[in-house]
Design brief:
Blueprint: E1 8-15, E2 20-27, E3 47-54, E4 60-66, E5 72-79, E6 85-91, E7 111-117, E8 123-129, E9 135-142, E10 148-154, E11 174-180, E12 186-192, E13 198-205, E14 211-217, E15 237-243, E16 249-255, E17 261-268, E18 273-280, E19 304-311, E20 320-323, E21 335-339, E22 345-347, E23 355-358, E24 362-364, E25 366-369, E26 375-377, E27 381-383, E28 394-401, E29 406-407, E30 417-422, E31 426-428, E32 434-435, E33 444-452, E34 455-468, E35 477-478, E36 482-483, E37 488-491, E38 499-503, E39 509-510, E40 516-517, E41 526-534, E42 537-538, E43 542-546, E44 548-549, E45 560-562, E46 569-570, E47 580-585, E48 592-593, E49 602-604, E50 610-618, E51 625-633, E52 648-652, E53 655-659, E54 668-675, E55 678-684, E56 688-691, E57 697-707, E58 710-711, E59 719-723, E60 739-746, E61 753-760, E62 764-772, E63 777-785, E64 788-795, E65 802-810, E66 815-822
Parallel strand pairs: 28-34, 36-44, 45-51
Antiparallel strand pairs: 1-2, 2-3, 3-4, 5-6, 6-7, 7-8, 9-10, 10-11, 11-12, 13-14, 14-15, 15-16, 17-18, 18-19, 20-21, 21-23, 22-25, 24-27, 25-26, 29-32, 30-31, 30-33, 33-34, 35-37, 37-40, 38-39, 38-41, 41-42, 41-43, 46-49, 47-50, 48-49, 50-51, 52-53, 53-56, 54-55, 54-57, 57-58, 57-59, 60-61, ...
Amino acid sequence: FYGGDSLDAMRRLKLSHHGYLVASGYSRSLNFPMVNPVDATNNGSADAIVMKLDMATGYLLKSTYLGGSAYDEPVGISLDQNGNIFVVGTTESNNFPLANPYQNILKGTSDIFLTKLKPDFTLDWSTYFGCTKSDDGNAIAVDSFGNCVITGTTSKNNYPTLNAWQPVFKFPSDAVISKFNSTGGLMWSTYAGGSGSEEGVAVAFDKYGNVLATGYTMSSTFPVLNPLQQNLSGTKDAFVIRLNKYGAGLISTYYGGSGSESARAIAVDKVGSVYVIGSTSSYDLYLKNPIQSANGTLADNGSDAFILKMNYAMVSKPIITVTGGNPKCYLTDSVKLTSNIPYGNLWSTGSLDSSINTNLTGTFYVTQTDSTGLGISSDNISITNNPVAYFSFDSTSKVICYGNADTLTAPFMAGVNYQWTGPVGFTSNIQNPILSDLNEVNMGVYQCVALNGNCSRVIKKINLLALANIQEPTNTTYSGEVCTGNSFTLLTDFKPGMQYNWSGPNGWTSNLQNPTITNAQSNSAGVYSLFLSSMNCQSNSQSVQVIVDTPPVSDAGQDLYVCNGTNAVTMDATNPAAGLGSWTYSGTTQLHIVSPNDPNSQITNISSATNQLKWTVSNGTCTPAQDIAIIKYTSSPNFGCIKPVNLYSVVNGNSVTLTWSNCTIADQYYVRYILGSVSKKKYTTAHGTIINNLAPGTYYWNVKPKCSGVWTSQWSVTKSFTILPPRDEDETESSSENLGSQLSIFPNPANDLISISFDVQHESNYQFKVFDLSGKEIISMNKHFEEGEWIEPLYISQLSSGMYIFCLKSEDGTFITRKFIKL
């Protein structure tokens, strides 16, 4: 709110391009908000108010009273380019503030006041202006030179006139229009009225300095000049007057219907078109291109608003004709625009000719200008491009695979139709047609035409040059199983003119017919695929599964003793991680190997004092590995006080049973078992012992005897056993579309190599991962497996001794984990 303790009202405002606005009104309050006022006192029954406010915030920057001891009311306000403020209104005060006045006394009961304030609100000049009866100032406008024009009403024949368009007053009241220079000097002043009553309500300048004024008239004798409407149509009509900068008449017209009209405001655009708003009670007001074609309030005896656009240039409106295609079919096409008036043209491009040629798009118009500088423009002509204009021509050639399909492609553009033609009568109306089962008759040029409206143009040519007859690979294989570190060769039949395209594990590729892979490793195993190609065409693919064997390792185990006439013993070899083991015996006695391929085979019929058995492990093409175990035999009850032999362990949960041969005779046995860096001991007189409540882990143990009261230094060989942790949440089993639920690891515990046994439901890619117990990833590799049961080797020699978690993960995110122990 802005106001004091009595009646306050604001009438007009004006915006500044500096971010503030000025407003004028009147106040009966003695305490209207004042900020840095020139006059802080309300001097009469009502004073004019002038305010300056910040446009962004509404903050009051400055305000002042302006008036004398009677009634003062401003109606119009304006600004010049320097921020000076012009105020016009009506005063009844004989002591209104004046400065450098044109008229220094109040002549009648009320006069027009006209005041120019500097930006700081101090008076630049201020004057009365009127007759000896009553006058009202209603509106003001300021031009670019600081000249101002006012309009209002007078009721006496002695209103000040100068260089008047209408020098004679016509009773009872006339509109008045008066122009002042920037220092307050009168430039010209005129009546505008007939035998009835008139009131000037609004005024404006055009860019040429011409003055436009509007208001209402009740006179049938109102002065008209080049009128749009010649006569008064009802009880009261609006009027529109155009005077040049010197006050000479150019246009004067009625505007109204059979009812009553009154104009309220007027404005001018940059080309001189005039806009007027007001009210009407007529049903027959002259309309053109109306948004609303009927008065909506006649049934209630009310009124509607009207808005009017007029062009008062005293020349004909030009008409443009277009020669050439519009829309244009090509971006570079030129069109010709011609005015129907051969002289006095000003085109929107700046040309003064009667016609222009352009290959540009956009809006064009031409203006005819009268002698006063006011112009009338043609209707806008919009030059556009047809959608096909945006295509660029493209020509390509292709080599086609015999019997294959090919898609003819054209760029997309909304609203465009396509027409393809080609060999053997081919036609299509779709953007990207497909050619199927291509052969010799289909070779040649295919052409696409884009069509829209009157435009058509070739946008694509595709030349199908030749056919490539692709051969399929045959007899694709390889040179057999290979051992790690050796080489193998991929084989396929020779196909003349074809390129060979091999691919294999770990991104391996080759374009040789029969490539050789040297120094094969475990990750060289897998599927190798081949397709043949020629001229961008390719055959179907053939694949071969390559196996890379792991070099075998043989461990025949500890030497064994048999005594007291016993002729049988169980061997202690290590089950091979890769390959197959076999026991052999080359002695002359009839020693019998019960299960030659079992690392723990029983040996019977032992009779020789010393027997040598060989444990041979073979794996594919790799050189077999061999190790020797010695069996010593005596028919005596024992061998005396020798180091304990034939060590065995049997784990049951977290307990273990340790045994050794009774071929050693001793008073007592010292059993030492070690987990990590912790060594523990146990004494027994038997040839074995049970140890309970063991923590999970791999233990190493050995035994030495006490003979004749003395502990010997004859420690047995060192053997190991592993206590597994109970299964918990660290081991998971899940099944999916790809991965079954079967997963096992052997041997477990293991030294340098474990085997992973699992089943695959569908061919896919899988991940092998190994984590330590803290969750840190130690090993990660990707492999591809087809459907079936698989046993895959995994080298773990890089791992330290301890427990680990193996994870097998499928592409669909499911996984299985198992624990294993690295010795």
